[in-house]
Write a sequence for this structure.
């Protein structure tokens, strides 16, 4: 049974980030720790009682394609009805369209609960949220009036429609075409890998489709963004005729079986009616609003599945009786959680999940500061930091989620390889997260090619300086916390040296940077995670004598383990960055 980590979430939001400070903004004046606790409590109840019970049946049954449309797994329609009635699609949306304005950090926290309890279900509302965000920023007043209220209420859902058979990550190769016709366009083409592209949860789906207007230039400059409803809407908001969009099939996947991944055909007859969003040729720019929103959400999905895998592994380790460790008291077998290596694996899972959670929520909080901060200079700096951290958060947290889920199988032993225990599902489900919204390699190229190069490392330098300053000033009388602080500070030095080396090599030969970009992204994740856990440990140590002393004691020990057994990975990565590029770029492809 899944248990939403509400206390962990409150710790990060309230005690590590101090998110209640956002209430100083007039737009968030009603926000408070008490409001956040209420939202988290209700989200936890829904995740535990409604979504989690459907996770395993959804995996075994899956979504089903029919000629009349996709049929979702049993229980999903009722769960979505409750989800919409509970107002969850409105969380974080603009109140003008029926939404509830809350910090992005809180919305990310709630999203973790959905991802842990039922990743397949969570993907649909995530994409709708992204489509809403893109329309809010780029849609015309008429488009906003026509679509947003019904999407924010959950009455309609939204998708992100990019990929084509010949155009995976290279969107410049998109061939779907759009022919102008009066006040709209007719779209012709086929798209693949469209998550929740068809389903029976709602009466309408609003597809956000990139296509090329007839006569547009080749490459990304010729791409435009279109609203293509599954069912055309009348002026009064009622549903009219079915649009020329059809689901040809759904993919048979490694995991997330209850999430239909669709092949969509646009324009098999007269062409699918589509409405241009914004200006022609700016489609990729607009689509990136959705993609960047989704990247942070997918990052949280990675560690969210890791959290669920950890909970299952810990429960197994407490009840599975096998063997007797050398220093065990008494005779006979004991629960395997008492074996040092099992304890090590559980701490590896727990510490990396906590570091990932802190990184995701810290990144979301930067975007909150960028939007709601009082000082313009501080807003710009926070926005830049959020943008810098997004590829790290997406790439590192999903890689960690895969590692953690795999460790969960290992703790179960041979039983972990058996589907009935449930541990294997997390490995299968989480695997997609390193691929969604750009692979880890794409994230790392974005990190060094755009975020690092655009300001010659200024934003990263500012982050490194802040980490050094805060760790140096971290006052504590707890020996374990001080040891964690020192190791975290040392790792920041490794990141600083590696960043300088990377910038120097990229200036001389860019491909050398690309050859070590993933190690650099991973280095950033480990070091930033260590900094945040060291700060968490200091906060916890100062409160260790209170009512929550066991909770705070666990925070200190988890951070100590991370410093001792996880952070040393960063030193090896720093060495790869400083000296490993030549082994890649000097190897001819024919020799591989």
């Amino acid at each position: 049974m899944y248990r939403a980590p509400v206390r962990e979430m409150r710790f990060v939001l309230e005690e590590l980030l101090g998110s209640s400070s956002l209430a100083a903004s007039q737009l968030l004046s009603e926000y408070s720790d008490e409001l956040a606790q209420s939202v988290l409590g209700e989200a936890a109840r829904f995740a535990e009682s409604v979504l989690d019970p459907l996770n395993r049946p959804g995996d075994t049954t899956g979504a089903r394609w029919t000629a009349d449309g996709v049929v979702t797994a049993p229980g999903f329609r009722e769960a979505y009805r409750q989800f919409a009635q509970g107002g969850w699609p409105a969380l974080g949306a603009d109140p003008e369209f029926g939404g509830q304005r809350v910090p992005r950090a809180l919305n990310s926290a709630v999203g973790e609960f959905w991802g842990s309890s039922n990743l397949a279900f969570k993907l649909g509302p995530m994409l709708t949220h992204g489509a809403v965000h893109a329309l809010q920023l780029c849609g015309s007043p008429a488009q906003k009036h026509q679509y947003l209220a019904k999407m924010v209420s959950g009455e309609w859902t939204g998708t992100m429609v990019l990929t084509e058979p010949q155009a995976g990550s290279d969107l410049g190769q998109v061939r779907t075409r759009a022919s102008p016709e009066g006040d709209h366009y007719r779209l012709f083409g086929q798209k693949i890998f469209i998550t929740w592209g068809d389903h029976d949860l709602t009466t309408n789906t609003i597809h956000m489709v990139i296509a090329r207007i007839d006569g547009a230039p080749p490459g990304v400059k010729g791409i435009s963004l279109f609203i293509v409803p599954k069912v055309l809407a009348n002026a009064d908001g009622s549903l009219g005729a079915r649009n020329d969009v059809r689901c040809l099939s759904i993919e048979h996947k490694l995991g997330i079986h209850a999430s239909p991944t669709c092949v969509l055909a646009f324009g098999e007859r007269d062409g699918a009616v589509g409405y241009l969003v914004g200006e022609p040729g700016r489609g990729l720019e607009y689509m990136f609003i959705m993609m960047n929103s989704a990247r942070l959400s997918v990052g949280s999905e990675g560690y969210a599945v890791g959290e669920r895998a950890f909970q299952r592994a810990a429960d197994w380790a407490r009840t599975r009786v096998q063997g007797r460790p050398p220093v065990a008291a008494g005779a006979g077998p004991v629960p395997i959680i008492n074996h040092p290596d099992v304890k090590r694996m559980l701490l590896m899972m727990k510490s990396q999940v906590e570091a990932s959670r802190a990184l995701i929520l810290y990144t979301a909080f930067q975007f909150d500061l960028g939007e709601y901060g009082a000082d313009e200079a501080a807003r710009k700096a926070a926005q830049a930091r959020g943008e810098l951290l997004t590829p790290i958060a997406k790439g590192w947290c999903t890689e960690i989620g895969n590692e953690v889920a795999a460790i969960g199988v290992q703790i179960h032993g041979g039983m972990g390889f058996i589907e009935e225990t449930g541990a294997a599902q997390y490995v299968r489900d989480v695997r997609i997260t390193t691929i969604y919204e750009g692979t880890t390699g794409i994230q790392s190229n974005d990190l060094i090619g755009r975020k690092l190069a655009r300001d010659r490392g200024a934003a990263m330098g500012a982050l490194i300086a802040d980490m050094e300053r805060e760790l140096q000033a971290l006052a504590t009388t707890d020996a374990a916390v001080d040891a964690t602080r020192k190791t975290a500070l040392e790792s920041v030095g490794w990141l600083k040296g590696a960043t300088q080396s990377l910038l120097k090599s990229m200036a001389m030969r860019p491909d050398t940077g690309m050859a070590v970009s993933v190690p650099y992204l991973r280095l950033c994740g480990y070091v930033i995670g260590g900094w945040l856990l060291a700060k968490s440990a200091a906060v916890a140590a100062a409160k260790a004598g209170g009512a929550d002393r066991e909770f705070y004691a666990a925070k200190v020990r988890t951070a100590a383990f991370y410093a001792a057994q996880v952070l040393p990975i960063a030193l090896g990565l720093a060495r790869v960055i400083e000296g490993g590029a030549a082994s890649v770029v000097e190897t001819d492809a024919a020799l591989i």
Observations:
- The beta strands are 156-161, 177-181, 184-195, 204-213, 223-229, 231-233, 239-242, 245-250, 261-266, 272-277.
- The chain has a mean pLDDT of 96.
